[in-house]
């Protein structure tokens, strides 16, 4: 047996009474970062059940968790360490396990065990199964002084949780011996939540049914105030919250996906109440879920985590909860107070630096102070290495540009995404859809009687933008698809060359891409209005051409490649969105002025290729050139507005404000 595991197992099964019969237990030992993490019973079926104790969050962990049940019944299991132990049926923990599982003490299955050692606290979590191998109970055990103290504290809180309240787990038994403390709860099926779907029901249920009380009267706030007495940031934040009254709430303290199981939006359960309090601050558990999932589970950047937080605060579900809790006007400073509590009181082993950086970033972005101080003392400044230059800087430039491009199409992933039914959406937006269809019919009729080479895309684009603004992205998507199909059909009725399946298919795809871009960007701006209506434009980092020369060069090469493909292919095929992409990338990487320059270059190149290959009249060529510029400038303006109004594009160092 591994020496690092033996003391834990011996302490768990230690007996202070008369010895009983020996029972042989055998496990596979799983390690994480070289340390014992999980003990899985040798029975493949029981081991598969035992993995329910482990809520994998990161992609690599999820893959490993999915592969384990496949590997354990095969010879590959021989590569795992084996742990064998003779347990005594007379030991207190064996007797306790038998009572909780509802079996005779000699028939207790070897329990799956998750080992946890945070600081000086040594704790175990055991999953018990009944005679049929079905999970029935979860036992948490503390086996040293700190671990026992934490276990007793959690058990005391669980005993006081309100009965029949959503998310509140109940004790089924406790055990205290000279060597350990333990308690048991029912096993709750389900999976870890991917987002915060349904959690508004839980947080509403946790609000105390009592009049609002001063914020300063709650223990959490008093603890935070004592820790922040010497901080420069704390007086500013405390003034923003001074004298505020809120409704106390049941507080979990570590409400993260790995401590929650959900069956559906109305049936979920929270575990690990070690940091819980009966009277806590409203909103903190919800903030914790978003922040910790962003930082620890998803590994998001500070800007991405901040964007997720802003989406939460401005969501209708949270605003309704905030109104009930009395925090509608203090949600932002209350979130900052939560972040300080994490940095000063909790001091997490993982994600502490990102949490502190998130506080600094949001403090400045929300402009609570002209000169926010960092939440942690700045370390000694190391001697900076010279910035990369020349070809060595190319990978960094491309990564930065790719990140900006991804930010442009970012969608919140941790906030619940509930969609209305089609019938409800149609009923709500039928007038906008009807106007859009009438405009589409009128534009198609005008195009039918005009020259087949005359560009009408800007008219179609305006119609899609109107529908997306009034009816939302889902209606806009289908309208863009209908519009993308309409144009090629109209011109194919007039000229046989456009009936070529390759030409029709390609042109429909190109039109759909550019129309869908407009739908996405218009919908994004419409949804961002609630986040930016009371703030100035976001501070965008200054970027010099010397810092993005590789991106500019790459966009130039891409434009040349598109022009060459446009020239050598069927002249009736359009490449409009491909000409547009370099201008969009340059706008994100540099600024709007450089994007405009690339628009002029792209549209001029496209017009020259069209004139050289289609032999159209100068009047039509000039019309198409102007209309392409109109389309490109509209898209570029949308990109620039998103860039200036979305926190994802904000400068990290905002302390100079």
In a few lines, what is going on in this structure?
The chain is an alpha+beta fold. Helix content is 52%, strand content 12%. The protein has 3 domains: 181 residues, Phosphorylase Kinase, domain 1 (2-Layer Sandwich), CATH 3.30.200.20; 167 residues, no CATH class; 223 residues, no CATH class.
Largest sheet: 8 strands, antiparallel
- Helix- and strand-based class? alpha+beta
Shape: elongated
Give me the Rg, rounded. Answer: 31 Å
Q: In words, what does this structure look like?
A:
This protein is α+β, with helices and mostly antiparallel strands. It has 3 domains: 6-186, Phosphorylase Kinase, domain 1 (2-Layer Sandwich), CATH 3.30.200; 199-365, no CATH class; 427-649, no CATH class. Helices cover 52% and strands 12% of the residues. The chain is built from 22 helices and 14 strands. It has helices at 6-12, 44-50, 59-71, 92-101, 145-160, 199-206, 219-227, 234-241, 284-297, 302-313, 316-325, 331-346, 352-365, 394-408, 422-449, 457-471, 473-492, 501-532, 549-568, 576-589, 592-614, 618-645; strands spanning 22-32, 35-41, 81-88, 112-118, 121-129, 135-142, 171-176, 181-186, 213-214, 245-246, 249-251, 260-264, 267-270, 277-280. The strands form 4 sheets. Strands 3-1-2-4-5-6-8-7 form an 8-stranded antiparallel sheet. The protein is elongated. The two termini are 59 Å apart. Mean pLDDT is 87; it is low at 377-384 and 653-657.
């Amino acid at each position: 047996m591994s020496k690092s595991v033996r003391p834990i197992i011996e302490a768990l099964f230690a007996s202070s009474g008369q010895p009983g019969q020996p029972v042989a237990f055998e496990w596979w030992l799983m390690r994480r970062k070289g340390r014992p993490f999980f003990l899985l019973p040798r029975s493949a079926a029981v081991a598969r059940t035992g993995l329910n104790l482990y809520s994998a969050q990161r992609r690599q962990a999820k893959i490993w968790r999915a592969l384990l049940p496949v590997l354990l019944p095969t010879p590959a299991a021989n590569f795992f360490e084996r742990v064998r132990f003779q347990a005594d049926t007379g030991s207190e923990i064996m007797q306790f396990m038998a009572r909780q599982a509802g079996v005779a003490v000699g028939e207790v299955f070897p329990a799956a065990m998750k080992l946890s050692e945070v600081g000086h606290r040594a704790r175990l979590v055991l999953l018990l199964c009944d005679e049929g191998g079905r999970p029935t109970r979860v036992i948490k055990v503390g086996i040293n002084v700190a671990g026992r103290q934490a276990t007793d504290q959690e058990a005391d809180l669980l005993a006081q949780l309100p009965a029949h309240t959503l998310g509140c787990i109940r004790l089924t038994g406790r055990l205290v011996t000279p060597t350990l403390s333990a308690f048991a709860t029912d096993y709750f099926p389900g999976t870890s939540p991917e987002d915060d779907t349904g959690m508004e029901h839980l947080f509403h249920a946790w609000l105390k049914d009592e009049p609002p009380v001063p914020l300063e009267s709650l223990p959490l706030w008093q603890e935070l105030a004592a820790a922040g007495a010497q901080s420069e940031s704390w007086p500013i934040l405390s003034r923003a919250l001074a004298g505020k009254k809120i409704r106390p709430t049941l507080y979990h303290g570590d409400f993260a996906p790995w401590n929650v199981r959900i069956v559906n939006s109305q049936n979920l359960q929270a575990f690990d109440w070690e940091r819980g309090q009966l009277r806590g601050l409203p909103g903190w558990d919800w903030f914790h879920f978003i922040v910790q999932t962003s930082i620890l589970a998803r590994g998001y950047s500070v800007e991405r985590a901040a964007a997720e937080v802003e989406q939460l605060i401005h969501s209708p579900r949270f605003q309704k909860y905030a109104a009930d809790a009395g925090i509608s006007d203090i949600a932002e400073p209350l979130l900052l107070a939560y972040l300080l509590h994490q940095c000063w009181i909790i001091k997490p082993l993982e994600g502490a630096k990102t949490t502190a950086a998130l506080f600094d970033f949001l403090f400045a972005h929300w402009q609570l102070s002209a000169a926010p101080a960092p939440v942690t003392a700045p370390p000694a400044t190391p001697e900076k290495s010279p910035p990369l230059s020349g070809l060595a800087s190319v990978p960094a430039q491309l990564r930065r540009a790719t990140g900006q491009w991804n930010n442009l199409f970012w969608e919140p992933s941790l906030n619940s995404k509930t969609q209305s039914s089609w019938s409800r959406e149609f009923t709500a937006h039928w007038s906008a859809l009807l106007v859009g269809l009438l405009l589409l019919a009128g534009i198609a009729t005008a195009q039918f009687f005009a020259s087949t080479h005359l560009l009408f895309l800007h008219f179609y684009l305006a119609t899609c933008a109107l529908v997306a603004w009034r009816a939302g992205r889902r209606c806009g998507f289908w309208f863009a698809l209908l519009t993308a199909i309409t144009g090629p059909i109209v011109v194919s009725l007039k000229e046989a060359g456009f009936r070529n399946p390759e030409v029709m298919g390609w042109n429909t795809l190109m039109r759909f891409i550019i129309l869908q871009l407009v739908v996405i960007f218009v919908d994004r701006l419409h949804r961002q209005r609630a986040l930016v209506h009371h703030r100035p434009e976001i501070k965008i980092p200054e970027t010099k051409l010397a810092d993005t020369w590789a991106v500019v060069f790459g966009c130039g090469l891409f434009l040349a490649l598109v022009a060459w493909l446009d020239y050598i292919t069927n002249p009736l095929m359009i490449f409009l969105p491909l000409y547009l992409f370099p201008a969009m990338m340059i706008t994100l990487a540099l600024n709007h002025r450089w994007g405009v320059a690339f628009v002029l270059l792209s549209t001029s190149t496209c017009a020259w290729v069209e004139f050289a290959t289609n032999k159209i009249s100068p009047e039509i060529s000039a019309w198409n050139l102007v209309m392409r510029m109109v389309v490109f400038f509209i898209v570029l303006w949308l990109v620039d507005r998103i860039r200036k109004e979305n926190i994802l594009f904000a400068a990290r160092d905002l302390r100079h404000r």
